[in-house]
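Progress note, sequence design subtask.
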């Protein structure tokens, strides 16, 4: 499905996360990093990771209802194992499509109005990428490897030096001088695949 990659300004805007689990906490952290006002609604045990963020979020221990989604700039819903939970997520998705809301049922791209891309942020660089929902695990693996690669402290210093140089250059001479300054910089990497794939087998 064709998509339009964009970045959404969530500073000071209300965001909602419904449910618990390992998939939820990273979404909460990304929303907080973006400056969103985050509410988490979760039944039962919310887990120590969410409780540790209680001072930065509104944490409600109950079932979510339709009214909770009203006025939210973006909504994430954790995976459900029950037919009732799945049906509810699909109803919310249909409402989001009709009303133009940003809605994501985690790990179910067919129940989302946007693609939740992976993000790498290191000093001087932000990268976003995704698989269009085909394999979030692969996107996560790529993110982890790239984050480790670009966390090299030399890269941060390199970007700082380039920024300092750029600030001293007159506009007319900037492009050529900056192109010359980055000449010689390259990313060298290789791909490694699991044994079942190399053998031409099914996973």
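Output:
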């Amino acid at each position: 499905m064709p998509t339009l990659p964009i970045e959404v300004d969530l500073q000071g805007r209300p965001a909602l996360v419904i449910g618990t689990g390992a998939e939820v906490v990273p979404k909460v952290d990304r929303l907080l990093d973006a400056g969103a006002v985050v509410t988490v609604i979760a039944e039962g045990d919310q887990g120590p990771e969410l409780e540790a963020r209680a001072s930065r979020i509104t944490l409600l221990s109950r079932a979510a209802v339709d009214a909770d989604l009203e006025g939210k700039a973006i909504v994430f819903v954790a995976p459900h194992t029950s037919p009732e939970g799945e049906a509810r997520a699909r109803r919310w998705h249909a409402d989001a499509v009709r009303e133009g809301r940003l809605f994501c049922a985690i790990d179910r791209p067919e129940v989302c109005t946007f693609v939740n891309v992976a993000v790498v942020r290191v000093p001087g660089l932000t990268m976003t990428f995704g698989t269009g929902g085909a394999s979030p695990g692969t996107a996560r693996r790529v993110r982890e490897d790239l984050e480790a690669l670009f966390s090299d402290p030399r890269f941060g210093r390199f970007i700082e030096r380039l920024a300092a140089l750029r600030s001293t250059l007159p506009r007319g001479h900037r492009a050529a001088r900056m192109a010359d300054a980055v000449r010689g910089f390259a990313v060298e990497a290789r791909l490694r695949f699991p044994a079942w794939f190399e053998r031409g087998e099914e996973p």
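The radius of gyration is 21 Å. Work on this subtask will continue into the next period as scheduled.
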